Amino acid sequence: MPAQEPARPPEFPARADGRPTISVVIPTLNEAKTIGRCLEALQHGDLAEEIIVVDNGSDDDTVAIALRFPRVRVIAEPRRGISFARLTGFDAARGDVIARIDADSVVRSDWVDRLRCLFAADGVDAVGGVDAVGGGAAIGELSPGRMFWFGWWYRWFRGWHQRSIGVRPMLYGFNSAFRRRAWERARHLVETDDQEVSEDVDVTIALLRTGHRLQHAPTLMVKARLFRSIDREKLARYYRTDSLTLTRHGYGNPRRWVGAPATGEVASSLVTPPAPVSSADPDRVRRGTA
Q1: How many C-alpha atoms does 49 have within 13 Å on its Cβ side?
Q2: Which listed residue, 2, 54, 64, 223, has the most CB atoms within 10 A of its CB?
Q3: Which of 101, 65, 58, 64 is nearest to 80 (CA)?
């Protein structure tokens, strides 16, 4: 069901430099193994005004670890599901820009500064600027230390997925951001049932349907655990919820709408993507970094 409208939280005071304030939202559920690394990366470079960790009922040390970090606010969301957790975080955000990452995302040290630059060009509530951005990604499983490798694999996946669903540019949950006012205008179109929608596709379409300007920003980089999705069961579920999301909005590729004639396209086409090269091939690795 569509989300109910919340009370609007107070905004942060305007920055002296005129650039937008940033709220980072991170939905979590039993993320003790990864949340520390995620939050540590946000302590370097330009610092966001707040980091909102939404706990969706963790029974491990996720909350205790999150509270060790400065500027972190933990909010409990008892309704289970990433759509509920994401919604609660977005609604609580006080920044001019709401940025979303996953609990296993690791941002590059220039991530917050690049966000401010992307949204600052035309002011906080721009008339002629960008309203939302989807960033780039390196493969976290294959990017040690400060390396951000194999961005080409994500670019390949992104191109495939956008062509398949007929929606672009996509805002994926592991690295995206939008103006808070854009969220407030699009919010009434989003769904909260994880079984019926792909939540990042749902948010992207809601922003597009309400006339907002979306942009792909490949230099806004994170490491993301992209290989965790290469599983037949997960891919089949994503393919189904993508189709349900497109049908719900009447948007995107009509051949993917539920009830449309079969096209022969199958979700398992992602099970054997181009394999990343070994780090023993340094020239290819350099070409694959974003």
Answers
A1: 19
A2: 223
A3: 58
Q: Mark residue 159 as left, alpha or beta (left: phi above 0; alpha: psi -120 to 50; beta: remaining).
A: alpha
76 found inside a domain: yes
Task: Decide if 43 contacts 36 (C-beta within 8 A).
Answer: no
Domain span at 226: 22-288
Q: Output the six-digit token pair for 287.
A: 């070409």
Q: What type of residue is 268?
A: S
> Does 11 map to a domain?
no
Total domains in the fold of the chain = 1
CA gap 154, 108 in Å, rounded: 16
- The answer to the question of residue 31 being in a domain is yes
pLDDT in tens, 217-258: 999 999 999 988 778 898 999 999 999 999 999 999 999 999
Query: Which residue is it, tokens 């690394």?
Result: 37
- The domain that holds 170 is classified in CATH as 3.90.550.10
Q: Which residue has the tokens 């230390």?
A: 145
